[in-house]
Design a protein that fits this description.
The complex is a heterodimer of chains A (111) and B (390).
Chain A: E1 2-8, E2 11-20, H1 25-36, E3 42-46, E4 50-53, H2 55-71, E5 74-78, H3 82-90, E6 99-100, H4 103-110
Parallel strand pairs in A: 2-3, 2-4, 3-5, 5-6
Antiparallel strand pairs in A: 1-2
Helix pairs in contact in A: 1-2
Chain B: E1 8-11, H1 15-27, E2 33-36, H2 39-48, E3 53-57, H3 65-74, E4 83-87, H4 92-101, E5 105-108, H5 113-154, E6 168-175, E7 183-189, E8 194-202, H6 207-227, H7 237-249, E9 258-266, E10 271-277, E11 283-286, E12 289-292, E13 297-298, E14 312-315, E15 321-325, H8 327-330, H9 341-351, H10 357-372, E16 381-388
Parallel strand pairs in B: 1-2, 1-3, 3-4, 4-5, 10-13
Antiparallel strand pairs in B: 6-16, 7-8, 8-9, 9-10, 10-14, 11-12, 11-15, 15-16
Helix pairs in contact in B: 2-3, 3-4, 6-7
The chains are: A alpha/beta (111), B alpha/beta (390).
Chain lengths: 111, 390
């Protein structure tokens, strides 16, 4: 899993490439926590290059979403591919997160 | 000094050399010294008790340092004892051969006390750290192994044969991906002729998932029994699942969750009532073929206490086999990163349609193992089969 971070108009855009599983989820979790823990946090997680996400990955996303709700920060996911969208759907996770179709839409929603 | 008085073995055929080195070592605080006059004696001593380091002369008659080293490295019990070669100044070639064979370092005569202290210290410290790591790992392994025994004994392993009263065959297996895991199965009776079957999958795997699995498993039976009304009313699957969800949302700050299929099978009417919480749909294997029990899929348990669940029903007939499983089956990976998938599972189920419940479960597990080949098991696996024989 590779993470790439960019700042766009005060929003942190984090691109995740590869697989999120038991081994890589903790590192992603730490990255998410760092941004959403503060009320001013604005985070977009771009899954355009994500191949696979396991339950370990969903768990760290849930933790981050809960954290964002508590802290008053914002978390928006975007660019889910067919396969990843299906994984979200099968687990019932599609309506548990703010999900935008594209990075631009996500950044706008996160501001 | 790295360890309190490490056991050193000095191997040299020359008495003066043994004496000189011995004195040097004593002066540096090493008092646990043993000497050997040749390779044969050295190997006997090494096989008789543990040593922390061997100082081995390169040139000896009968068996030279290289030959002693060969024997040491070939013996699995002695392979890990650090060896420092003792050489004369012009023996670099021999020393190199010894180091290539596995000696850690060398010291040339006459011994420089600073180099002696430094090289001994380094080798001994390395051994000490390695021993510490090995001991630590052994402790962790032992603890996980006993946790594994406990976890595997939590799921029922007695599969009663069908009777006239309870004309069902049942079999199930649980295979954590590591020593312990987050999958579970259970089956039990609520009232005399209502069989409850469950399969669940806790997020992630390993020790954390195993702890949540234990919590989830205990809740299922307890809630089902509590909700079994005083008038004998059998709770609807979605009622049990909803209650479980509320419980699992409590004291769950790390957002652990579990997917689950819970069903109750009325052995009289042969009706299956079931609830799906984010879990792969189970299959019914019957004379008509293999079909998935598609139904409204509720959310996984443990996320939000307000989620709602629904019960669906399916009429089964004699001979039908219900197969519940976790995604460790369908998402098993082979060396090419390909998934086992639903289609392979359906193929296996079709091929054992007539078999015993044990053969159904074994066939699926075997097929997954063969598919994965040498790849480590990617996720926990649970599989449960129930067949109506009457």
């Amino acid at each position: 899993m590779e993470l790439r971070e960019e700042q766009v108009n005060g929003v942190t855009a984090l691109s995740v490439k590869g697989r999120i599983d038991s081994t890589t989820a903790p590192a992603l979790g730490q990255k998410l926590e760092a941004v959403v823990a503060t009320p001013a946090g604005r985070l977009v997680v771009d899954f355009r290059e994500l191949e696979y996400i396991s339950s370990a990955g969903f768990r760290v996303l849930l933790v981050a979403a809960k954290r964002a709700e508590e802290a008053g920060s914002r978390l928006v996911l975007c660019s889910l591919s067919g396969r990843v969208r299906q994984l979200f759907d099968l687990g019932g996770f599609l309506d548990l997160f703010a999900i935008a179709a594209s990075r631009d839409e996500a950044i706008a929603a996160a501001k | 000094m790295a360890t309190p008085d490490p056991a050193l073995l000095v191997v040299d055929d020359n008495e003066d050399n043994r004496y000189t080195l011995g004195q040097r070592l004593k002066r540096q605080g090493y008092t646990n010294l043993t000497t050997a006059v040749n390779g044969r004696e050295a190997l006997e001593l090494l096989r008789s008790r543990p040593f922390d380091l061997v100082l081995l002369d390169v040139t000896m008659p009968e068996m030279n340092g290289y030959e002693v080293l060969e024997q040491l490295k070939a013996d699995p019990r002695l392979r890990h004892v650090p060896v420092i070669m003792i050489s004369a100044v012009d023996q670099v070639e021999s020393v190199i051969r010894c180091i290539e064979l596995g000696a850690e370092d060398y010291l040339s005569k006459p011994f420089n006390p600073t180099l002696l202290r430094a090289r001994l210290g380094a080798s001994l410290e390395k051994k000490r750290l390695r021993d510490e790591i090995d001991a630590h790992l052994a402790r962790i392994e032992a603890e996980l192994e006993s946790a594994r025994q406990i976890q595997l004994s939590m799921v029922p392993s007695a599969f009663p044969a069908p009777t006239a009263e309870a004309p069902v065959g049942i079999f199930a297996s649980l295979y954590p991906a590591r020593q312990v895991g987050g999958d579970l199965y259970d089956f039990f009776y609520i009232g005399p002729r209502r069989l409850c079957v469950v399969v669940a999958d806790v997020s992630d795997k390993g020790a954390a998932a195993a702890l949540f699995m234990a919590r989830t498993k205990t809740l299922i039976r307890t809630l089902a029994s509590l909700m079994h009304g005083a008038n004998g009313a059998i709770p609807e699957p979605h009622e049990v699942v909803a209650r479980m969800n509320e419980e699992l949302c409590e004291d769950n700050p790390h957002s652990m969750f579990a997917t689950m299929v819970l069903g109750t099978l009325d052995l009289g009417s042969r009706e299956l009532r079931f609830c799906n919480a984010g879990h792969p749909p189970p299959y019914v294997v019957g004379t008509a073929g293999v079909s998935a029990l598609e139904a409204v899929r509720g959310k996984p348990l443990g996320i939000r206490p307000t989620f709602t669940y629904a019960t669906a029903a399916r009429q089964l007939t004699v001979g039908d086999c219900l197969f519940l499983f976790t995604d460790g089956v369908t998402e098993a990976l082979d060396a090419n990163g390909e998934l086992f998938s639903e289609s392979r599972l359906e193929e296996v189920l079709r091929s054992v349609a007539e078999g015993s419940t044990e053969s159904v479960v074994s066939a699926v597990v075997e097929a997954v193992r063969r598919f994965a080949g040498n790849e480590p098991q990617s996720d926990d696996i649970a599989a449960l089969a129930v067949r109506l024989v009457g």
